[in-house]
TrEMBL record, chain A:
Domain CobW/HypB/UreG nucleotide-binding intervals: 4-164
Origin species: Paenibacillus rhizophilus
UniProt-listed SUPFAM superfamilies: P-loop containing nucleoside triphosphate hydrolases (SSF52540)
Coiled coil: none
GO molecular function, a single term: nickel cation binding
Name this polypeptide is given: CobW/HypB/UreG nucleotide-binding domain-containing protein
Database matches in Pfam families: cobW
Species lineage: Bacteria, Bacillati, Bacillota, Bacilli, Bacillales
GO biological process: protein maturation
InterPro entries: CobW/HypB/UreG_nucleotide-bd, Hyd_mat_HypB, P-loop_NTPase
From TrEMBL, chain B:
Identification of the protein by name: ATP-binding cassette domain-containing protein
Keywords: ATP-binding, Nucleotide-binding, Transport
SUPFAM superfamilies to which the protein is assigned, alphabetical: P-loop containing nucleoside triphosphate hydrolases
Domain of life: Bacteria
InterPro entries registered for this protein in UniProt: AAA+_ATPase, ABC_transporter-like_ATP-bd, ABC_transporter-like_CS, P-loop_NTPase
PANTHER family: OSMOPROTECTANT IMPORT ATP-BINDING PROTEIN OSMV (PTHR43117:SF4)
Stretches assigned to the ABC transporter domain: 5-242
Similarity comment: family membership: Belongs to the ABC transporter superfamily.
Xref: Pfam families: ABC_tran (PF00005)
Source lineage: Bacteria, Bacillati, Bacillota, Bacilli, Bacillales
Annotated GO MF terms: ATP binding; ATP hydrolysis activity
Length: 236, 264
């Protein structure tokens, strides 16, 4: 089974794009399944199920979805193997721009849309930098010049990745993306594999449920913003 | 690679209802082709197939040949200078940049390496070209998203004309943008390009040497323009000039009187 990790900002077109690519997989006689990771709610599982795609939905609740991902992906991979899938895709909405669910030797796809702003790629962190494939969606809404400029901005951040434009509504580009995805390596087990990028070091009192504001309530791994010439409250 | 385009060929696929399209249309540099048909008949789809250099891998099943051959993969997906310039129906920019920033970024990614002075000049020439097409002048410091529909369209056209020397140009309905469509066409259609233009405008349609007629998703016919149509075109252009003159007078707050405004 191949494992493909797909991540991108909320509503960037991940599910639309994947549903199209999964159609293409079916035409090639390949069976794909999906695990969707999200924060509080998602209806993506219904969209996959409606297309007959086996799907798991994992909601991270008060955890970062990428932290939740890394603690659950191995079990999900075993689920995929038990269904004899050819391809298991994980879809996660990368939210904090600091985490990314990419695993070494598992093909990593970043989905980003043409509307997200010319400077967004430079702000995106490992989600974009560590991807093998960058799929840019919603090109139908912008001019050719804007597509070119945006793609160029993406290249500046990640020159190594295969960058392609795909339309989540019509599926234009799905054949090329599909062909790239089928070149992913097969995996036997994830046990002992490594993330491409460490998750943030963030065990502070707020990670543990604190809600009150003030220096008295801050504990653990806390970082103060630099503000010139203003006395800062001491961190205990 | 882009300067050696001798032809593109459209091989038919099938219409939305699965009817096969009996089409084998070869276009050569200098050809200007109109794409006509009701809204929703698949004009934009045809242009998208050409832009993608479809290889029977889009919903229409069409195949586009370049120089009588399927294109090499580099040609389809290559980065950098484009074989095909496309002016789609978008009437507005969404990018968060000023006009000048946008032109510089676009020039940079088209890998034209400019000195700063060269870049200034380039921005100036794109903006002044755009301002020839729109009545509301564009300033280089204006954010793209603050441009009106007409200004955006004029800038897109000027940018395409000045920055991309693509040998194939696809135009999707330039008429409904409140810009001078005849000038726009002149700017885009320099000699020895292959131009396809989706249009509802009779003058633009008749300016073309031939017309691809679309019906319910499929190419229903390809018509060559004839002498009778050329004569009709002249009449229409006179009428159009008269209407433009009236519009201009009204705009200036003048009265319309006298036989000067009788049409034909
Ligand atoms: N115009 C256009 N709309 C698109 C395209 N791709 C996706 N959309 C639309 O964008 C919206 C979000 O698409 P989704 O596929 O749900 O995005 P997502 O990334 O899976 O969203 P989450 O999983 O909720 O984070 C939907 O309304 C889609 O129809 C595209 O290429 N063009
Ligand atoms: Mg989704
Ligand atoms: Zn995170
Ligand atoms: Zn914390």
């Amino acid at each position: 089974m191949k494992l493909i990790t797909v991540a991108g900002p909320p509503s960037s077109g991940k599910t639309s794009m994947l549903l199209r690519v999964i159609d293409w997989f079916k035409e090639q006689g390949l069976k794909a399944g999906v695990v969707k990771f999200d924060c509080v709610a998602s209806k993506d599982d219904e969209r996959y199920r409606a297309k007959g795609v086996p799907v798991l939905l994992g909601l991270a609740g008060n955890l970062c979805p990428d932290h939740y991902f890394v603690t659950n992906i191995e079990a999900c991979a075993r689920w995929g193997q038990s269904l004899e899938l050819d391809i298991l895709i994980s879809e996660s909405a990368g939210l904090c721009n600091r985490c990314s669910p990419f695993i070494r030797q598992a093909l990593a796809v970043c989905v980003i849309d043409n509307l997200s702003g010319a400077n967004t790629p430079t702000k995106m962190g490992p989600l974009l930098k560590q991807a093998d494939i960058v799929a840019i969606t919603k090109g139908d809404i912008v001019s050719q010049a804007e597509r070119e400029v945006f793609q160029y901005q993406v290249r500046k951040v990640n020159a190594r990745a295969e960058v392609l434009q795909i339309n989540g509504l019509t599926g234009q580009g799905k054949e090329r993306l599909g062909a790239l995805l089928t070149q992913a390596q097969d995996i036997d087990t994830l046990d002992g594999r490594k993330l491409r990028f460490s998750m943030p070091a963030a065990v502070c009192s707020y990670c543990l449920g604190e809600t009150k504001i003030g220096s008295d309530y801050q504990m653990g791994n806390v970082k103060s913003i630099a503000i010139p010439d203003v006395p800062r409250p001491e961190v205990s | 690679m882009t300067d050696s385009i001798q032809s593109i060929t459209i091989l038919g696929g099938r219409s939305k209802s699965g009817q096969p399209e009996d089409v084998n249309l070869r276009l050569v540099p200098g050809d200007l082709v109109a794409v006509v048909g009701p809204t929703g008949s698949g004009k934009s789809r045809l242009l998208a197939d050409i832009e993608y250099i479809a290889q029977r891998d889009t919903p229409s099943g069409r195949c586009i040949l370049i120089n009588d051959q399927p294109p090499a993969s580099e040609l389809r997906f290559a980065w950098g200078r484009k074989l095909i310039a496309q002016l789609s129906q978008n009437m507005n920019f969404v990018m968060d940049a000023t006009v000048a920033e946008f032109i510089s970024m676009h020039a940079e990614c088209r890998d034209n390496s400019f000195e700063e002075a060269g870049l200034e000049k380039l921005i100036g020439s794109v903006v002044s070209q755009a301002n020839r097409l729109t009545g509301e002048p564009i300033h280089p410091d204006t954010p793209l998203t603050a441009l009106s529909g007409g200004q955006s369209r004029a800038l897109m056209i000027a940018d395409t004309a000045v920055l991309s020397d693509s040998p194939i140009v696809l135009i999707d309905e330039i008429e409904n943008a409140g810009i001078d469509r005849r000038q726009a066409l002149d700017v885009l259609v320099q000699n020895q390009k292959i131009v396809l233009m989706a249009t509802h405008d009779p003058i633009l349609a008749l300016l073309a040497h031939s017309r691809i007629v679309l019906k319910s998703g499929g190419i229903a016919d390809v018509l060559r323009s004839d002498e009778g149509e050329s004569e009709l075109l002249e009449e229409l252009q006179k009428a159009d000039a008269a209407i433009m003159a009236v519009r201009e007078k009204l705009r200036r707050g003048e009265r319309l009187e006298g036989p000067g405004f009788k049409i034909s």
